Amino acid sequence: MSGTIDRAKDRARHEVDRARGRAKELAGRLTGDERREAEGRTDRARADLRRSWRSVRERARGIGDSLRKGRS
């Protein structure tokens, strides 16, 4: 059960980070602050990368589980 909760927390954190990055990007665009806009793009990219990495880990875990079940 704690694994499910941890995954939900990770997913929520990634979505918050992504939304925060989007807000920074928009604020930078509206004020003409190129640095803030770039920070926002970077924050969004980092959140997307973490989400992708989590997906890869989960798939690898699933493959490992499948292989273990096949050997038993």
* Span of the ends, CA to CA: 24 Å
Q: What percent of residues are in strands? A: under 5%
Number of H/I helices: 2
* Low-pLDDT sequence parts: none
Structural class: mainly alpha
Oligomer: single chain
What's the Cα radius of gyration?
17 Å
Whole-number mean pLDDT? 86
Helical fraction equals: over 70%
| Basic shape | elongated
List the helices and strands and how they pair.
Layout lengths: L1 H30 L2 H38 L1
What key phrases describe this protein's structure?
72 residues, mainly alpha, 2 helices, elongated
Question: What does this protein look like?
Answer:
By secondary structure, the chain is mainly α. The protein is built from 2 helices and no strands. The protein has helices at 2-31, 34-71. α1 (2-31) packs antiparallel against α2. The longest helix has 38 residues, at 34-71. The model has no long low-confidence stretch (mean pLDDT 86).
In brief, what are we looking at here?
The protein is an all-alpha fold and 72 residues long.
